[in-house]
Amino acid sequence: LTQLFRPLDLLGMVYRTIRQGVIDMGSMFDLIDTDAEVKDAPGAPPLQVASGHVQFENVRFGYDPSREILKGIDLDIPAGSTVAVVGPSGAGKSTLARILYRFYDLTGGRVTIDGQDISRVTQDSLRAAIGIVPQDTVLFNDTIGYNIAYGREGATPEEVANAARGAAIAGFIQALPDGFDTRVGERGLKLSGGEKQRVAIARTLVKNPPILILDEATSALDSRTEADIQATLEAIERGRTTIVIAHRLSTVVHADRIVVLDSGRVAEQGTHAELLRRGGLYAEMWARQAQEREDGDEAADPEGAQ
Ligand code: ATP
Q1: HEC profile for 67-123?
Q2: Is 66 in the pocket of ligand 1 (CB under 6 A)?
Q3: This prediction's pTM
Q4: Complex ipTM above 0.95?
Q5: Alpha carbon 156 to its chain's center
Q6: With CB atoms counted within 10 Å of each terminal CB, which end of the chain scores lower, N or C?
Protein backbone atom coordinates (compact mmCIF):
# COMPACT_ATOMS: atom_id res chain seq x y z
CA LEU A 1 0.00 0.00 0.00
CA THR A 2 1.17 3.48 -0.81
CA GLN A 3 1.56 5.53 2.30
CA LEU A 4 0.67 9.19 2.34
CA PHE A 5 4.08 10.19 3.60
CA ARG A 6 6.75 7.59 3.20
CA PRO A 7 9.38 7.10 5.91
CA LEU A 8 12.18 7.35 3.33
CA ASP A 9 10.86 10.66 2.07
CA LEU A 10 10.82 11.78 5.66
CA LEU A 11 14.43 10.91 6.31
CA GLY A 12 15.74 13.47 3.85
CA MET A 13 13.41 16.09 5.21
CA VAL A 14 14.28 15.35 8.81
CA TYR A 15 17.94 15.71 7.92
CA ARG A 16 17.35 19.04 6.21
CA THR A 17 15.06 20.19 8.98
CA ILE A 18 17.70 19.48 11.61
CA ARG A 19 20.45 21.00 9.49
CA GLN A 20 18.47 24.20 9.07
CA GLY A 21 17.51 24.18 12.71
CA VAL A 22 13.94 24.70 11.61
CA ILE A 23 11.20 23.26 13.73
CA ASP A 24 8.34 22.96 11.36
CA MET A 25 6.02 20.01 11.39
CA GLY A 26 4.94 20.81 7.86
CA SER A 27 8.37 20.64 6.31
CA MET A 28 8.99 17.36 8.04
CA PHE A 29 6.28 15.83 5.93
CA ASP A 30 7.44 17.40 2.74
CA LEU A 31 8.53 15.10 -0.04
CA ILE A 32 12.15 15.23 -0.92
CA ASP A 33 11.75 16.10 -4.58
CA THR A 34 8.93 18.61 -4.43
CA ASP A 35 10.61 21.74 -3.12
CA ALA A 36 11.72 22.90 -6.52
CA GLU A 37 8.32 22.23 -8.05
CA VAL A 38 6.18 24.22 -5.66
CA LYS A 39 7.07 27.85 -5.14
CA ASP A 40 5.39 30.76 -3.45
CA ALA A 41 3.95 33.22 -5.96
CA PRO A 42 5.80 36.57 -5.78
CA GLY A 43 4.25 38.67 -3.03
CA ALA A 44 1.91 35.83 -2.00
CA PRO A 45 -0.14 36.76 1.08
CA PRO A 46 -0.60 34.36 4.01
CA LEU A 47 -3.69 32.17 4.10
CA GLN A 48 -6.36 33.63 6.37
CA VAL A 49 -8.43 30.81 7.78
CA ALA A 50 -11.88 31.98 8.82
CA SER A 51 -13.74 28.70 9.26
CA GLY A 52 -11.83 26.07 7.27
CA HIS A 53 -14.13 25.52 4.28
CA VAL A 54 -12.22 23.38 1.75
CA GLN A 55 -13.19 23.10 -1.90
CA PHE A 56 -11.72 21.08 -4.74
CA GLU A 57 -12.92 22.44 -8.08
CA ASN A 58 -12.40 20.27 -11.16
CA VAL A 59 -8.97 19.25 -9.83
CA ARG A 60 -6.70 17.51 -12.33
CA PHE A 61 -3.28 16.16 -11.52
CA GLY A 62 -0.70 13.57 -12.61
CA TYR A 63 2.77 12.86 -11.19
CA ASP A 64 3.74 12.24 -14.77
CA PRO A 65 2.14 14.36 -17.52
CA SER A 66 1.37 11.23 -19.53
CA ARG A 67 -0.67 9.65 -16.72
CA GLU A 68 -3.46 11.62 -15.10
CA ILE A 69 -4.20 10.43 -11.54
CA LEU A 70 -6.93 12.89 -10.47
CA LYS A 71 -9.34 13.36 -13.35
CA GLY A 72 -11.55 16.30 -12.46
CA ILE A 73 -12.36 16.10 -8.75
CA ASP A 74 -15.14 18.30 -7.32
CA LEU A 75 -15.46 18.22 -3.55
CA ASP A 76 -17.05 20.63 -1.15
CA ILE A 77 -15.98 20.04 2.44
CA PRO A 78 -17.92 22.31 4.81
CA ALA A 79 -16.04 23.92 7.68
CA GLY A 80 -15.84 21.64 10.70
CA SER A 81 -17.10 18.54 8.91
CA THR A 82 -15.41 15.15 8.60
CA VAL A 83 -15.06 13.65 5.17
CA ALA A 84 -13.67 10.16 4.68
CA VAL A 85 -12.05 9.31 1.38
CA VAL A 86 -12.23 5.63 0.47
CA GLY A 87 -11.70 3.60 -2.67
CA PRO A 88 -9.64 0.84 -4.19
CA SER A 89 -5.86 0.85 -3.82
CA GLY A 90 -4.32 3.31 -6.26
CA ALA A 91 -7.56 5.29 -6.68
CA GLY A 92 -5.81 8.54 -5.71
CA LYS A 93 -6.81 8.95 -2.03
CA SER A 94 -3.36 9.87 -0.72
CA THR A 95 -2.73 12.03 -3.78
CA LEU A 96 -5.80 14.07 -2.92
CA ALA A 97 -4.40 14.75 0.55
CA ARG A 98 -0.97 15.66 -0.83
CA ILE A 99 -2.62 18.14 -3.17
CA LEU A 100 -4.36 19.87 -0.26
CA TYR A 101 -0.99 20.20 1.49
CA ARG A 102 0.37 21.49 -1.83
CA PHE A 103 3.15 19.01 -2.28
CA TYR A 104 2.41 19.44 -5.96
CA ASP A 105 0.76 21.99 -8.19
CA LEU A 106 -2.25 21.04 -10.27
CA THR A 107 -2.53 20.64 -13.99
CA GLY A 108 -6.11 21.92 -13.88
CA GLY A 109 -8.75 23.30 -11.55
CA ARG A 110 -8.08 24.72 -8.10
CA VAL A 111 -8.27 24.03 -4.39
CA THR A 112 -9.50 26.75 -2.06
CA ILE A 113 -9.63 27.21 1.70
CA ASP A 114 -12.20 29.79 2.75
CA GLY A 115 -12.23 31.00 -0.86
CA GLN A 116 -8.46 31.49 -1.18
CA ASP A 117 -6.66 29.51 -3.88
CA ILE A 118 -3.99 27.51 -2.02
CA SER A 119 -1.48 28.04 -4.84
CA ARG A 120 -1.66 31.82 -4.30
CA VAL A 121 -0.89 31.93 -0.57
CA THR A 122 2.42 31.22 1.17
CA GLN A 123 3.24 27.57 1.72
CA ASP A 124 4.22 28.29 5.32
CA SER A 125 0.80 29.70 6.15
CA LEU A 126 -0.97 26.86 4.31
CA ARG A 127 1.01 24.19 6.14
CA ALA A 128 0.58 25.91 9.49
CA ALA A 129 -3.19 25.57 9.00
CA ILE A 130 -3.13 21.84 8.31
CA GLY A 131 -2.25 19.11 10.79
CA ILE A 132 -1.36 15.63 9.65
CA VAL A 133 -1.58 12.45 11.65
CA PRO A 134 0.43 10.05 9.49
CA GLN A 135 0.31 6.26 9.40
CA ASP A 136 3.78 5.91 10.80
CA THR A 137 5.19 8.46 13.17
CA VAL A 138 8.86 9.22 13.12
CA LEU A 139 10.18 9.62 16.65
CA PHE A 140 13.33 11.59 17.31
CA ASN A 141 16.04 10.26 19.58
CA ASP A 142 15.03 12.74 22.21
CA THR A 143 12.59 12.99 25.08
CA ILE A 144 8.92 12.19 24.70
CA GLY A 145 8.20 15.81 25.68
CA TYR A 146 10.39 17.07 22.82
CA ASN A 147 8.66 14.72 20.41
CA ILE A 148 5.28 16.21 21.33
CA ALA A 149 6.48 19.83 21.48
CA TYR A 150 7.77 19.39 17.92
CA GLY A 151 4.20 20.11 16.77
CA ARG A 152 4.77 23.85 17.17
CA GLU A 153 7.84 25.93 17.76
CA GLY A 154 7.68 27.52 21.19
CA ALA A 155 5.13 25.13 22.70
CA THR A 156 5.17 25.44 26.49
CA PRO A 157 5.45 22.44 28.88
CA GLU A 158 1.88 23.14 29.91
CA GLU A 159 0.67 22.95 26.30
CA VAL A 160 2.60 19.69 25.87
CA ALA A 161 0.98 18.23 28.99
CA ASN A 162 -2.48 19.31 27.82
CA ALA A 163 -1.89 17.78 24.40
CA ALA A 164 -0.76 14.52 26.01
CA ARG A 165 -4.01 14.49 27.99
CA GLY A 166 -6.03 15.16 24.81
CA ALA A 167 -4.26 12.27 23.09
CA ALA A 168 -4.89 10.02 26.11
CA ILE A 169 -1.20 9.30 26.62
CA ALA A 170 -0.59 11.46 29.70
CA GLY A 171 -1.12 8.60 32.17
CA PHE A 172 1.33 6.40 30.28
CA ILE A 173 3.96 9.18 30.25
CA GLN A 174 3.56 10.02 33.92
CA ALA A 175 4.17 6.37 34.81
CA LEU A 176 7.54 6.40 32.98
CA PRO A 177 10.63 6.75 35.20
CA ASP A 178 11.48 10.22 33.90
CA GLY A 179 7.99 11.28 32.80
CA PHE A 180 8.09 13.72 29.87
CA ASP A 181 11.93 13.66 30.05
CA THR A 182 12.08 9.95 29.20
CA ARG A 183 14.11 9.38 26.07
CA VAL A 184 12.36 7.57 23.21
CA GLY A 185 13.25 6.44 19.71
CA GLU A 186 16.01 4.18 18.46
CA ARG A 187 18.27 4.86 21.42
CA GLY A 188 15.56 5.16 24.03
CA LEU A 189 12.31 3.59 25.07
CA LYS A 190 10.59 1.79 22.21
CA LEU A 191 6.94 2.71 21.91
CA SER A 192 4.23 0.43 20.52
CA GLY A 193 2.39 1.32 17.31
CA GLY A 194 -0.56 2.65 19.30
CA GLU A 195 1.63 4.73 21.62
CA LYS A 196 3.46 6.23 18.65
CA GLN A 197 0.16 7.16 17.10
CA ARG A 198 -0.83 8.89 20.30
CA VAL A 199 2.40 10.89 20.22
CA ALA A 200 1.44 11.94 16.67
CA ILE A 201 -2.01 12.96 17.89
CA ALA A 202 -0.49 14.94 20.77
CA ARG A 203 1.89 16.69 18.33
CA THR A 204 -1.09 17.66 16.23
CA LEU A 205 -2.95 18.96 19.28
CA VAL A 206 0.06 21.16 20.11
CA LYS A 207 -0.14 22.53 16.58
CA ASN A 208 -3.92 23.04 16.99
CA PRO A 209 -4.69 23.38 13.27
CA PRO A 210 -8.16 24.24 11.90
CA ILE A 211 -7.78 21.56 9.21
CA LEU A 212 -6.76 17.94 9.80
CA ILE A 213 -5.61 15.14 7.52
CA LEU A 214 -5.71 11.72 9.10
CA ASP A 215 -3.91 9.01 7.19
CA GLU A 216 -5.41 5.99 8.77
CA ALA A 217 -2.96 3.34 9.85
CA THR A 218 -3.02 0.19 7.81
CA SER A 219 -0.72 -1.57 10.23
CA ALA A 220 -2.55 -3.90 12.53
CA LEU A 221 -3.23 -2.56 15.99
CA ASP A 222 -5.15 -4.89 18.25
CA SER A 223 -8.85 -4.15 18.04
CA ARG A 224 -9.11 -2.69 21.56
CA THR A 225 -6.22 -0.25 20.90
CA GLU A 226 -7.70 0.61 17.54
CA ALA A 227 -11.11 1.37 19.06
CA ASP A 228 -9.47 3.53 21.77
CA ILE A 229 -7.45 5.49 19.22
CA GLN A 230 -10.50 5.87 17.02
CA ALA A 231 -12.35 7.46 19.95
CA THR A 232 -9.44 9.86 20.57
CA LEU A 233 -9.35 10.82 16.90
CA GLU A 234 -13.07 11.47 16.84
CA ALA A 235 -12.62 13.80 19.81
CA ILE A 236 -9.87 15.83 18.11
CA GLU A 237 -11.87 16.04 14.87
CA ARG A 238 -14.54 18.08 16.64
CA GLY A 239 -14.52 21.70 15.50
CA ARG A 240 -11.97 21.04 12.73
CA THR A 241 -12.39 20.33 9.04
CA THR A 242 -11.12 16.76 8.75
CA ILE A 243 -10.19 14.58 5.82
CA VAL A 244 -9.68 10.93 6.69
CA ILE A 245 -7.79 8.82 4.17
CA ALA A 246 -9.31 5.49 5.03
CA HIS A 247 -8.03 2.09 4.07
CA ARG A 248 -10.58 0.19 6.13
CA LEU A 249 -14.26 1.02 6.00
CA SER A 250 -15.02 0.11 9.61
CA THR A 251 -13.54 3.42 10.77
CA VAL A 252 -15.47 5.74 8.44
CA VAL A 253 -19.02 4.94 9.44
CA HIS A 254 -19.18 8.05 11.64
CA ALA A 255 -18.00 10.49 8.92
CA ASP A 256 -20.38 13.26 7.89
CA ARG A 257 -19.74 12.24 4.32
CA ILE A 258 -17.90 9.41 2.61
CA VAL A 259 -16.35 10.08 -0.78
CA VAL A 260 -15.64 7.03 -2.91
CA LEU A 261 -12.77 7.55 -5.34
CA ASP A 262 -12.28 5.20 -8.23
CA SER A 263 -9.54 5.68 -10.85
CA GLY A 264 -9.16 9.37 -10.01
CA ARG A 265 -12.86 10.23 -10.15
CA VAL A 266 -15.52 10.64 -7.47
CA ALA A 267 -17.61 7.54 -8.09
CA GLU A 268 -20.18 8.26 -5.36
CA GLN A 269 -20.56 10.16 -2.11
CA GLY A 270 -22.96 10.22 0.80
CA THR A 271 -23.35 8.97 4.34
CA HIS A 272 -22.66 5.34 5.19
CA ALA A 273 -26.39 4.55 5.18
CA GLU A 274 -27.00 6.37 1.88
CA LEU A 275 -24.15 4.59 0.16
CA LEU A 276 -25.25 1.18 1.41
CA ARG A 277 -28.77 1.84 0.08
CA ARG A 278 -27.33 2.88 -3.25
CA GLY A 279 -25.85 -0.58 -3.74
CA GLY A 280 -22.81 0.69 -5.69
CA LEU A 281 -19.05 0.45 -5.24
CA TYR A 282 -19.13 1.36 -1.53
CA ALA A 283 -21.78 -1.27 -0.75
CA GLU A 284 -19.68 -3.81 -2.62
CA MET A 285 -16.50 -2.84 -0.70
CA TRP A 286 -18.41 -2.94 2.60
CA ALA A 287 -19.74 -6.43 1.91
CA ARG A 288 -16.28 -7.63 0.93
CA GLN A 289 -14.60 -6.22 4.04
CA ALA A 290 -17.34 -7.61 6.29
CA GLN A 291 -16.69 -11.03 4.77
CA GLU A 292 -12.94 -10.62 5.33
CA ARG A 293 -13.53 -9.66 8.96
CA GLU A 294 -15.66 -12.76 9.42
CA ASP A 295 -13.05 -14.99 7.75
CA GLY A 296 -10.36 -13.39 9.91
CA ASP A 297 -12.34 -14.09 13.08
CA GLU A 298 -12.77 -17.72 12.05
CA ALA A 299 -9.06 -18.04 11.27
CA ALA A 300 -8.22 -16.56 14.67
CA ASP A 301 -10.59 -18.92 16.42
CA PRO A 302 -10.97 -22.00 14.22
CA GLU A 303 -12.75 -24.00 16.87
CA GLY A 304 -14.92 -21.09 17.88
CA ALA A 305 -18.51 -21.47 18.98
CA GLN A 306 -20.86 -22.71 16.27
P1 ATP B 1 -3.65 3.07 -1.38
O2 ATP B 1 -5.00 2.78 -0.81
O3 ATP B 1 -3.02 1.86 -1.95
O4 ATP B 1 -2.76 3.83 -0.45
P5 ATP B 1 -4.33 5.50 -2.91
O6 ATP B 1 -5.75 5.53 -3.36
O7 ATP B 1 -3.95 6.33 -1.75
O8 ATP B 1 -3.87 3.98 -2.71
P9 ATP B 1 -2.34 7.03 -4.33
O10 ATP B 1 -1.22 6.79 -3.40
O11 ATP B 1 -2.97 8.38 -4.34
O12 ATP B 1 -3.45 5.91 -4.19
O13 ATP B 1 -1.78 6.71 -5.78
C14 ATP B 1 -2.56 6.93 -6.97
C15 ATP B 1 -1.70 6.55 -8.16
O16 ATP B 1 -0.59 7.45 -8.25
C17 ATP B 1 -1.11 5.14 -8.09
O18 ATP B 1 -1.21 4.57 -9.36
C19 ATP B 1 0.32 5.38 -7.71
O20 ATP B 1 1.14 4.40 -8.29
C21 ATP B 1 0.62 6.74 -8.29
N22 ATP B 1 1.62 7.47 -7.47
C23 ATP B 1 1.53 7.71 -6.14
N24 ATP B 1 2.58 8.42 -5.70
C25 ATP B 1 3.37 8.64 -6.78
C26 ATP B 1 4.62 9.31 -6.99
N27 ATP B 1 5.26 9.92 -5.98
N28 ATP B 1 5.12 9.32 -8.24
C29 ATP B 1 4.48 8.70 -9.26
N30 ATP B 1 3.30 8.05 -9.13
C31 ATP B 1 2.75 8.00 -7.91
Answers
A1: ECCEEEEEEEECCCCEEEEECCCCCCHHHHHHHHCCCCCCCEEEEEECCEEHHHCCH
A2: no
A3: 0.83
A4: yes
A5: 24
A6: C
